[in-house]
Design a protein that fits this description.
mainly beta, 6-stranded mixed beta sheet, OB fold (Dihydrolipoamide Acetyltransferase, E2P), 5 helices, disordered N terminus, 14 strands
Length: about 300
């Protein structure tokens, strides 16, 4: 399987969810800076956990909506809010079937009112922008002229970056900017471009996202310990996009004695892949200093 095909499939192991998207999915909706955008991400999924289990009734409503709901979101005053949560059900007799929207917000959040700040979400959201360059019939795999990436820590916007989908982009410059995206500048605005040097991008004792995909089956089978780099959020490692691949995230569990680095920190995890629980089991976390890259030159 090629890398482009791999990045179009959201696998059980990577996301720790019940889905494997073999069909293009309906996007969520996001209002940001006065405009409504498609959102190629599902921040509600981070709410579901051992503490808040995903309801059994929240099943797919169609092959284009495996998650079973449609969420509307808004970024207001630098915070992410859930403003609407519906489940589209198709009802009627054969030949006269019509979609009906049911508000399920009270079923998921019985003690809350919308809009609800998404304090449970730390991670990165992808907002496609411009003309569609290539349609991909899997997940959120379609490619647009550019993508806006929005980074959050407990529902608060901490970074943003626009990436033009041009194969001529330089991977090293891209990598350096990803290292800085979660940092605030002196005026309190979110940072956009990195300033670190290009040292150590050719180190070979750690994996990046593409290599993990290629070796995942072997790593699971052999129980081999490996190192992988990306952007840290509690419980998940975010792998930024490259000119040839999309972003994705990998769920993990860590030893209790390991301290969490700050959200959005570039890190190197030492881990083994546990197929049974669909997670990485992390034994050490090293926060990367300036000059150590999270992506390799191609």
């Amino acid at each position: 399987m090629t890398w482009q095909k791999l990045c179009g499939v959201i696998t059980l192991f990577l996301l720790g969810t019940m889905f494997s998207f073999a069909t293009a999915q309906f996007p969520e909706e996001l209002v940001f800076e006065g405009e409504t955008h498609a959102l190629f991400a599902n921040p509600l999924e981070d709410y579901f956990s051992f503490k808040n289990p995903r309801p059994n009734w929240l099943e797919a409503t169609s092959t284009a909506c495996w998650r079973g709901y449609m969420g509307s979101w808004e970024i207001k005053d630098g915070k992410l809010y859930l403003t609407k949560l519906i489940r589209k059900v198709y009802e009627g007799e054969r030949g006269d079937v019509k979609p009906v929207d049911y508000d399920i917000s009270k079923k998921i959040f019985p003690n809350e009112m919308l809009p609800l700040m998404a304090t449970w979400f730390s991670g990165v959201l992808r907002v496609p922008q411009g003309k569609e360059l290539r349609y991909v019939h899997m997940g959120y795999g379609s490619i647009y002229e550019q993508d806006l990436y929005l980074m959050f820590d407990q529902g608060k916007l901490i970074g943003k970056r626009v990436v033009k989908n041009d194969p001529k982009n330089d991977i090293s410059d891209s990598d350096l900017a990803w290292r800085e995206i979660g940092k605030m500048n002196r005026s309190g605005a979110v940072a956009g471009d990195g300033v670190a040097n290009k040292a150590s991008v050719k180190q070979v004792d750690w994996l990046e996202g593409r290599e993990f995909f290629e070796k995942a089956e072997e790593l699971e089978k052999n129980g081999e310990t490996f190192k992988i780099r990306g952007i840290y959020f509690p419980g998940k490692l975010w792998i930024p996009p490259t000119p040839n691949s999309q972003d994705f995230q990998i769920r993990f569990l860590k030893k209790e004695e390991l301290k969490d680095p700050p959200s959005s920190s570039p890190v190197e995890l030492t881990a083994v892949a546990d197929k049974q629980i669909r997670r990485l089991m992390v034994s050490s976390i090293r926060e990367l200093p300036p000059g150590e890259a999270i992506q390799k030159e191609q």
